[in-house]
Amino acid sequence: SDTMGSCVFFVGTYRDNEVQIGHAIFDLLQKLETSNVPTTKSSLTGLDRGDLNNVPTTKVSLTGLDRGDLNKMVSDSLGLYPRICKSLSDIVFQKTKGNPFFVLEFIQSLQSRGLLQYDSCQKRWVWSADTIRAEEITDNVLHLLSTKLNQLPDEVQLLLKVMACFG
Fold first, then answer.
1. For a tag site, which of 93, 125, 127, 164 has the least CB within 10 Å?
2. CA–CA separation, 144 vs 135, rounded Å?
3. How far is 47 from 42, CA to CA, in rounded Å?
């Protein structure tokens, strides 16, 4: 049979802080990495050892931003020198642990709640580090996003729920 035209591209993701050693994903990765016989068999009902031969894999590990990179990101976003926004960047790093997505959501939430404001007299963004530091702001991205979603009109929330059923 002609298998040259048969290709599968699979992308799998997992959060290494949520999966313990011994999880099936690690067994699958090991089998993919250590196999050495060309794949000749395919199955839609499940994988067996014959399915996992000679499969090239690429692992990409994504980590959070370090303090310096996060400071540069905040500096670029606010149009300020890094030394000026270091106090804000340090707080953002502490609250977000450098997760780039959470950093953006967090900064947007600061702005929308008036904790980060543009001062037209100074012609720059201003904030009170002490006020932001004292805020009880969640360390959980899902909580921040669900709070944002709960602020949407009921009709929009219903539409999002229905659309989520379709993927």
1. 164
2. 14
3. 8
Place of tokens 């499940």: 46
Tokens of 145: 């996003």
- Cβ proximity of 111 and 117 under 8 Å: yes
Q: Cα-flanking dihedrals φ and ψ of residue 100, to 5°? A: -55, -40
φ/ψ of 136, rounded to 5, equals -85, 90
For the whole prediction, is pTM greater than 0.85?
no
SS3 57: coil
Interatomic CA distance for residues 72 and 96, integer angstroms: 15
Q: What is the pLDDT of residues 99-128, one digit of tens each?
A: 888 888 889 889 988 999 999 999 999 999
Q: Select from 114, 136, 125, 127 the least CA-distant residue to 88.
A: 127
What is the rounded distance in angstroms from the CA atom of residue 115 to the CA atom of residue 109? 8
In order of 12, 32, 50, 54, 153, the CA distances from 39 in angstroms are 19, 11, 7, 6, 52
Tokens of 95: 């609250």
